[in-house]
Write a structure and sequence with these properties.
This protein is an alpha/beta fold. The protein is built from 11 helices and 14 strands. A 6-stranded mixed sheet has the order 4-3-5-13-6-14, with helices on both faces. A 4-stranded mixed sheet has the order 8-12-7-11. Strands 1-2 form a two-stranded antiparallel ribbon. A hairpin with a 2-residue loop joins strand 1 and strand 2. The longest helix has 25 residues.
């Protein structure tokens, strides 16, 4: 198996067509087809479904595509680690951020990277935390912001913030109380819009509810932050989330966040890297910058409901 075969296969999948991949790679299509056939013969499995409309990966192809991406990513990182300067780091850095954190961290981090490290190409991916864990294990991303739920032992972890989960409604919602805070028991009496198990904050909420001897009633389960926001703005119910995903709506006055008490619910957010794959100079620079941006966001109050855990690191 040759590295060019991996590059060719990834290009074919990315472009959905042998002809388009051949044009991008500047390779004759018959030669590209021959390399693909040799790869499939060596693996003893067909990787693609071919049709008049293009190509799609089958189950074996999807698995091989993920591994090929990881191998090519690590090869590129190894090359960058040798040639890049520590004084002016550059190259691609892939960072994964969960949907419920990106609203607070993504734009300030992008802005800071552009200002301090113009030669770094920061590639942000917004995913469910479970997907990010698999991508970080395989080396497809360099860093990931993850929730510390006692499943981060495969990674080196740096605590970022402790986030307070809040009771969030439309600003003029019939479900909102006039007080600045709401008890957990009262919050659970409202129709709730939450991610389904085991996604996002739902396991943390369920654990705290059970420990308090309470029960969750009516729930609308939505795993998309965008759809969840629409449901809140339609006043179908309230949600229990960190404030980060709805910061823009809170600032614009269309949503309201109330602290939850008796008891409160929090989660810890950490920056994670692989224990087995070294960080490039550029990735290490981004790692440091994530801490600096986090400190600034918490110190200024722009990361609403978050307590800085980076001090002293």
């Amino acid at each position: 198996m040759e590295l060019r075969q991996l590059r060719y296969f990834v290009a074919i999948v990315d472009h959905g067509s042998l002809s388009r991949a051949a044009r991008v790679l500047h390779v004759a299509q018959p030669a590209l087809t021959q390399q693909l056939r040799q790869l499939e013969d060596e693996l003893g499995a067909q990787l693609l479904h071919r049709s008049a409309q293009g190509v799609l990966t089958n189950d074996a192809g999807k698995i091989f595509y993920e591994h090929a991406q990881a191998i090519l990513k690590q090869l590129g990182d190894a090359r960058s680690a040798v040639i890049q300067s520590s004084a002016r780091p550059g190259g691609a850095v892939a960072l994964g951020i969960p949907q419920s954190v990106s609203g607070a961290l993504a734009l300030p981090l992008l802005t800071a990277v552009r200002a301090q490290y113009p030669d770094i190409n920061l590639q942000l991916s917004e995913e469910l935390s479970g997907n990010l864990i698999e991508q970080l294990k395989s080396g497809r991303i360099n860093l990931a912001v993850l929730f510390d739920d006692d499943q981060l032992t495969p990674f080196t972890t740096t605590p970022l913030v402790e986030e307070q989960l809040m009771f969030i409604t439309r600003s003029d919602s019939r479900f909102a109380s006039k007080a600045a805070s709401i008890t957990l028991a009262d919050a659970l009496r409202v129709p709730l819009i939450l991610p389904s198990l085991p996604h996002g904050v739902r396991p943390r909420i369920e654990k705290r509810v059970q420990a308090s001897g309470l029960a969750i009633g009516q729930v609308i389960e939505i795993n998309s932050i965008a759809i969840l926001k629409s449901a809140i703005l339609a006043d179908l119910g309230a949600t229990i989330l960190p404030a980060a995903p709805v910061l823009a709506e809170i600032e614009h006055g269309s949503m309201r966040a109330q602290a939850i008490t008796e008891p409160g619910i929090t989660r810890e957010v950490a920056l994670c890297a692989s224990k087995s794959i070294p960080l490039t100079t550029a990735a290490a620079a981004v790692e440091r910058l994530v801490l600096e941006v986090t400190q600034d966001l918490c110190g200024s109050g722009r990361w609403l409901g978050a307590r800085d855990l980076t001090q002293g690191i």
